[in-house]
Amino acid sequence: MESNPRGQEGSPIFDNFDVDLLIRVLANTAFSPFFVFFIPIFYIFQGLKLSHPIIIYTSFYYVLISAFWFIKWYSRLYRNQGSLFFRPPSLEWNEQIVIITGGASGIGELLANTLAVRSVTVVVLDINPIVTENYNIAYYKCDVSKWEEVEAVSKKVIDEIGEPTILINNAGVVQGKPLVNLSQADVQQTFGANTLSHFWVLKAFLPSLLKNKSGHIITMSSALGMTGVAQMTDYCASKAAVIGLHESLRYELDKIYKCPQIRTTLVCPGHVQTSMFSTVTFPNFPAFKFLCPSVQPVTVVKRIIAALDDQHSQTILLPFYTNFIPYIRHLPSFLRDLVQWISGADHAMRKFVKITSRRPDEGPLPSGFSTKKE
Q1: What sections of the protein cross the membrane (predicted)?
Q2: What is the pLDDT of residues 76-101, one digit of tens each?
Q3: Annotated catalytic sites, by residue?
Q4: What is 100-127 written as a DSSP string?
Q5: What are the residue ranges spanned by the domains of the chain?
Q6: Which of 73, 177, 236, 332 is the least buried, fewest Cβ under 10 Å from its Cβ?
């Protein structure tokens, strides 16, 4: 789910102090095996015997967190058919052809321009043209919710540019209406852009990836695909369907096509500061901003590029609180309702106004993400 920045202007230091920053610090200190390893060593050098409780407890803690990170690391290798000693070869960026749906604005636009700076050939499929100065970004007008248009454009892209190596299904829309107020056209548009477009793009371009036995598929879903909130029935359902598609596709690639070399990454962000959800209302108490911070588009783009560079299938959940969303449904009903109330999720869309085009006040791309080829 995407949103506007929350709150008023404040301290440049404390605006970015949230639970995500705290977790990053702890991951490199108290939860880091490398850091913790030196704690019992320090006490031993201070003269404590090996049988001292401090040495025993800190050593046990070291083994515990080391086991956690090892299991996490090995699980990732196993999922990617990896080796304990050899990682995939480095990605040759200048040889990649990337398809990005919905690449004319928001995250898609920033991602297209950022990849283009890396000498990647980028193909944007959108009903609106992308405004860019990068010569290696090609735009094709296409309503990706319609199979006929995707099929026709795919043939042109393959003929004129080449077979794609990376697919980024990013297109999406939101209506923000109660279910009864949704028109037939609203529901068709939501599922067409948010769900069916993934099927059509995969149906058109996946054969190229299968033929070459390599590639990467990025599936843009949402934290709301893992839960439900008021006035978002169509959006939540469409994003949930995309998560099911991603998981089923992974097993098809492994078991049916025998092609684990094609990587699949699922992206489920929380509130991203783009224009799509710029009129959403959030709670204004400090604890909410600390626990449920908004995400900058730059952060999402960096994580996607890191996943491509890493060449491992993975799930990207950000910010940190989104890791707990799948478990909310297992809470007792009164606790789940309490979480919904504290988060303000069921009231966030009350003043929502749908924006159908890019706003002038979105401004330039963030610092460090030039649109010009270096």
Answers
A1: 21-45, 51-71
A2: 888 786 666 777 778 899 999 999 99
A3: 235
A4: EETTTSHHHHHHHHHHHHTT-EEEEEES
A5: 19-80, 94-347
A6: 332
